Amino acid sequence: MGCIGSSQARNEGGAKRKKIMKPKPWAHTEPITRAQLTNMREEFWDTSPHYGGQREIWEALRAAAEADLKLAQTIVDSAGVIVQNRDLTLCWDERGARYELPRYVLSEPTNLIREEGQ
Predict the structure, then answer these.
(1) Separation of alpha carbons 109 and 34, rounded Å
(2) pLDDT at position 115 over 60
(3) Which of 35, 50, 39 is closest to 113 using CA atoms?
């Protein structure tokens, strides 16, 4: 229920959630290898629950970050994630906890060093 202007009333009316999109191109401060990028990502995801919020939401955000856009949209919608920035760099859960994702977990930098054989 709620008054006509409340967010709950708008959500009951079938208001659309923000559609997510690919992050804008970005460059790391210096060229990095895929192995370095992977290490940065693993370190972030290993420590993310310590930034606050719910472990389940962090897990859903990781799954979304590693999925294609259509599946990522389904994941964030199913988890009840409120997307503030359409590239997933800033999200909230339904309890008001903030989740900030660095660009390096969402996409590759433009200055990624391609190692031979890749």
Answers:
(1) 10
(2) yes
(3) 35
Q: Shortest CA distance to 22 belongs to which of 55, 65, 62?
A: 65
13 secondary structure, DSSP code: T
**Mind listing the domains of the chain with CATH numbers?**
25-112 (1.20.225.20)
Q: Is the pLDDT of residue 19 over 80?
A: yes
Long-range contacts of 89-98 (CB under 8 A, 24+ apart): 89/23, 91/61, 93/53, 93/54, 93/57, 95/54, 97/52, 97/53, 97/54, 97/57, 98/52, 98/53
Q: What is the CA radius of gyration of the chain?
A: 16
Structure tokens at 73: 């949209």
| pLDDT score for 3 | 47
Residue 22 sits at the vertex; the CA angle it makes with 12 and 82, to the nearest 5 degrees, is 25
15 or 49, higher pLDDT: 49
Smallest Cα–Cα separation from 92: which of 53, 49, 65, 60? 53
Q: How far apart are CA 57 and CA 52, in angstroms?
A: 10
